[in-house]
Each structure stands twice: as C-alpha cells, then as structure tokens.
Amino acid sequence: MEYDVEYLKNQTSINYDKTLCYCKNVSYKQAYKAICDGKLTTLEEVVEKTQASTGCGGCKDRIASLLEYAKKNNYEPAN
User: Fold this and answer.
1) 3-class secondary-structure state, position 42
2) Could you read off the pLDDT of 6-39 as tens digits, one per residue?
3) Cβ of 24: how many Cβ atoms within 10 Å?
4) First vs last C-alpha separation in the chain
5) Residue by residue, what is the 3-state secondary structure of 31-46?
6) How does DSSP classify residue 39?
C-alpha cells in the first residue's frame, strides 16, 4: 500500500482528533504520538503500545497509513 506524503499529511490533519480505533477508543492523535515517540515501524508495535486493532481489526489499514506517514515525515510530531 503506497501513499503519497501529501495525501497522508492531509488525511492525518483531517482525522487527527478523530477516532482511529472504535473498539479500543484510540484517536489518531494517540496512535500517531505513540508511533513518533517510540519511532515504531510495525503494526504489531503500534498494537502493543495503544491496543488499537485488538478488537475487530478494522483499523489496521488506518494504522498502516499512519506508520507510512510517520516514516516519510521522519517521525516529526503533527501540528
């Protein structure tokens, strides 16, 4: 799954305060902060830190997008 950095930046900005994982009530902001703080690189690491995707698993693609965005942005904190 390849995403353009600008696309990911826009999606992250748009969704930053919204819920990423409804089962575990994890926001995009919480997940992105965990990714950047820990320089996480895998879905499994994000799951371990946030518990996101441990319910239905429907947010795995959204987590993957955040990981790609963080990597391409050198783990810069979002504004």
Assistant:
1) coil
2) 666 666 666 677 888 999 999 988 999 999 999 9
3) 17
4) 25
5) HHHHHHHHCCCCHHHH
6) T
